């Protein structure tokens, strides 16, 4: 007979119920709790000390960085090496162009998620001749060990998991504002870096040779600047390139939405009612995954074309108010603001899970929940219970910020596609002859999109069919592409 007595005695040594944690618990403390394998490696002894207050140097004696703990560099290097195994196309581009140094003289200031995958991109840019200074576009998505590895390798990186809002802007400013170094290229994700340089350093902004932006939010802000006649540099809209939209936005989110929700809530999706706000590429990916696991999925949309696509894919298109009382999960992916308001949150059922898959934290009105009558209870890293006076609780993930990169990881292979696209966009803008690009927002040339795709086909042992001369003439195409017109939507 198996005896459990000793085990029970050992178990009862630990408290069975934890008290509620106060709302004033600091962001930096709560966001560095490690829960899953996706969380950054964290030395708990460092949690109480802000990286801004530390004096750190790498093995070369440089202190031109600010990370959580430079001692994590070796661990971060292993993470980067693992990512490189599934980013063969980007590594291939690095090897092909390394001798030419197409980015020699480029001084790139970047603001993206700092993960093992983006580290491979940053080191590729450096290998191609660029000097790079980097900050994080999300206060929760930085992998501390990866930031340390980049700092050890000589990259001026200013980022750590769990930054405060003040830290976030301080890190961006440290990247831009350095004596004797002036950026001439921007790689942005969300538009915060571009906005900061435009507002705070207008003379630097005017001398920028090109901006590459990869998010819906950031692209929207660029188009606003362009429309107002205030965009004085050419910009490349990578977000709407085929290799970003159809792969990162669709296939990446199709896998990472489930990963993020499972790691944070352990929820079972079969039979759950889920409303997804927005049926763009991100929404399509999320819905496909949820439907495959047996969830009942509703869609909200403003665009009749996207709404019709949702209907044809078997989803019911509704207004949020019509289903808010009955759904178990609410997911936003619109790129808009105030999609889920306090009124919606008040009407949700007990234990409803609320999260965001869009870049910006503006989609869910989290600020409206910071009121005296509501109690916040941190239950695990990136998971808060917001408790109403009647006892109802809503499960809020990542405080309304990007779920997949805040709470889990994303597929490396898909990020290779996006990173290769970004690298080529930077090379194109930096080396373009004067006059090719005016002060406007451009899409990546179709030929470049096709080249990015072709670099990734060998991973699948895929073999393209080649047109004969007669077939190419019949279709009016060059045998080597581009194979589709710019207006073609895949």
From TrEMBL:
<protein>
    <submittedName>
        <fullName>Adenosylhomocysteinase like 1</fullName>
    </submittedName>
</protein>
<dbReference type="InterPro" id="IPR015878">
    <property type="entry name" value="Ado_hCys_hydrolase_NAD-bd"/>
</dbReference>
<dbReference type="GO" id="GO:0033353">
    <property type="term" value="P:S-adenosylmethionine cycle"/>
</dbReference>
<comment type="similarity">
    <text>Belongs to the adenosylhomocysteinase family.</text>
</comment>
<keyword id="KW-0554">One-carbon metabolism</keyword>
<feature type="binding site">
    <location>
        <begin position="280"/>
        <end position="285"/>
    </location>
    <ligand>
        <name>NAD(+)</name>
    </ligand>
</feature>
<keyword id="KW-0520">NAD</keyword>
<feature type="compositionally biased region" description="Low complexity">
    <location>
        <begin position="24"/>
        <end position="43"/>
    </location>
</feature>
<dbReference type="Pfam" id="PF05221">
    <property type="entry name" value="AdoHcyase"/>
</dbReference>
<feature type="binding site">
    <location>
        <position position="244"/>
    </location>
    <ligand>
        <name>substrate</name>
    </ligand>
</feature>
<feature type="binding site">
    <location>
        <position position="214"/>
    </location>
    <ligand>
        <name>substrate</name>
    </ligand>
</feature>
<dbReference type="GO" id="GO:0006730">
    <property type="term" value="P:one-carbon metabolic process"/>
</dbReference>
<dbReference type="Pfam" id="PF00670">
    <property type="entry name" value="AdoHcyase_NAD"/>
</dbReference>
<dbReference type="InterPro" id="IPR042172">
    <property type="entry name" value="Adenosylhomocyst_ase-like_sf"/>
</dbReference>
<feature type="binding site">
    <location>
        <position position="115"/>
    </location>
    <ligand>
        <name>substrate</name>
    </ligand>
</feature>
<feature type="binding site">
    <location>
        <position position="404"/>
    </location>
    <ligand>
        <name>NAD(+)</name>
    </ligand>
</feature>
<feature type="region of interest" description="Disordered">
    <location>
        <begin position="1"/>
        <end position="63"/>
    </location>
</feature>
<dbReference type="InterPro" id="IPR020082">
    <property type="entry name" value="S-Ado-L-homoCys_hydrolase_CS"/>
</dbReference>
<feature type="binding site">
    <location>
        <position position="301"/>
    </location>
    <ligand>
        <name>NAD(+)</name>
    </ligand>
</feature>
<dbReference type="InterPro" id="IPR036291">
    <property type="entry name" value="NAD(P)-bd_dom_sf"/>
</dbReference>
<feature type="domain" description="S-adenosyl-L-homocysteine hydrolase NAD binding">
    <location>
        <begin position="249"/>
        <end position="410"/>
    </location>
</feature>
<feature type="binding site">
    <location>
        <position position="189"/>
    </location>
    <ligand>
        <name>substrate</name>
    </ligand>
</feature>
<dbReference type="GO" id="GO:0005829">
    <property type="term" value="C:cytosol"/>
</dbReference>
<dbReference type="InterPro" id="IPR000043">
    <property type="entry name" value="Adenosylhomocysteinase-like"/>
</dbReference>
<feature type="binding site">
    <location>
        <position position="248"/>
    </location>
    <ligand>
        <name>substrate</name>
    </ligand>
</feature>
């Amino acid at each position: 007979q198996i005896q459990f007595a000793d085990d029970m005695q050992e178990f009862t040594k630990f408290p069975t119920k934890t008290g509620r944690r106060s709302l004033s618990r600091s962001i930096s403390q709560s966001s560095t709790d490690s829960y899953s394998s996706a969380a950054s490696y964290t030395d708990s002894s460092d949690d109480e000390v802000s990286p801004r207050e530390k004096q750190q140097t790498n093995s070369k004696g440089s202190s031109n960085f600010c990370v959580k703990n430079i001692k994590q560099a070796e661990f971060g290097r292993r993470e980067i090496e693992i990512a490189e195994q599934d980013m063969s196309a980007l590594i291939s581009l690095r090897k092909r162009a390394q001798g030419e140094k197409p980015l020699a003289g480029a001084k790139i200031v970047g603001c993206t998620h700092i993960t093992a995958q983006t580290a491979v991109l940053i080191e590729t840019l450096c290998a191609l001749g660029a000097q790079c200074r980097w900050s994080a576009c999300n206060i929760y998505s930085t992998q501390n060990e990866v930031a340390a590895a980049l700092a050890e390798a000589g990259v001026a990186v200013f980022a750590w998991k769990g930054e405060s809002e003040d830290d976030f802007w301080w890190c961006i400013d440290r990247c831009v504002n350095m004596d004797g170094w002036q950026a001439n290229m921007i790689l942005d994700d969300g538009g915060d870096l571009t906005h900061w340089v435009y507002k705070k350093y207008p003379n630097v902004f005017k001398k920028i040779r090109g901006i590459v932006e990869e998010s819906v939010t950031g692209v929207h802000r660029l188009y606003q600047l362009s429309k107002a006649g205030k965009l004085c540099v050419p910009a490349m809209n990578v977000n709407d390139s085929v290799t970003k939209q159809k792969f990162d936005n669709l296939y990446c989110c199709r896998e990472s939405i489930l990963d993020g929700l499972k790691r944070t809530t352990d929820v079972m999706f079969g039979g759950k009612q889920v409303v997804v706000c927005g049926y763009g590429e991100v929404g399509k990916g999320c819905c496909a995954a949820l439907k495959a696991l047996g969830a009942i999925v509703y869609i909200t949309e403003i665009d009749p074309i996207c709404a019709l696509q949702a209907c044809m894919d078997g989803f019911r298109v509704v207004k949020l108010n019509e289903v808010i009382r009955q759904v178990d999960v609410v997911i936003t992916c619109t790129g808009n603001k105030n999609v889920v308001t306090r009124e919606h949150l008040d009407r949700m059922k007990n234990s409803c899970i609320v999260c965001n898959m869009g870049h910006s934290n503006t989609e869910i009105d989290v600020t409206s929940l910071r009121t005296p009558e509501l109690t916040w209870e941190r239950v695990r890293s990136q998971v808060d219970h917001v408790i109403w006076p009647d006892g109802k609780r809503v499960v809020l993930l990542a405080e309304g910020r990007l779920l997949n990169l805040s709470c889990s990881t994303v597929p490396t292979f898909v990020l290779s596609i996006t990173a290769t696209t970004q690298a080529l966009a930077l090379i194109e803008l930096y080396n373009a002859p004067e006059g090719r690009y005016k002060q406007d927002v451009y899409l990546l040339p179709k030929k470049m999109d096709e080249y990015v795709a072709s670099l990734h086909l060998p991973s699948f042992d895929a073999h393209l069919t080649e047109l004969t001369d007669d077939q190419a003439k019949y279709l009016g195409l060059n045998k080597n592409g581009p194979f589709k017109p710019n207006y073609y939507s895949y």
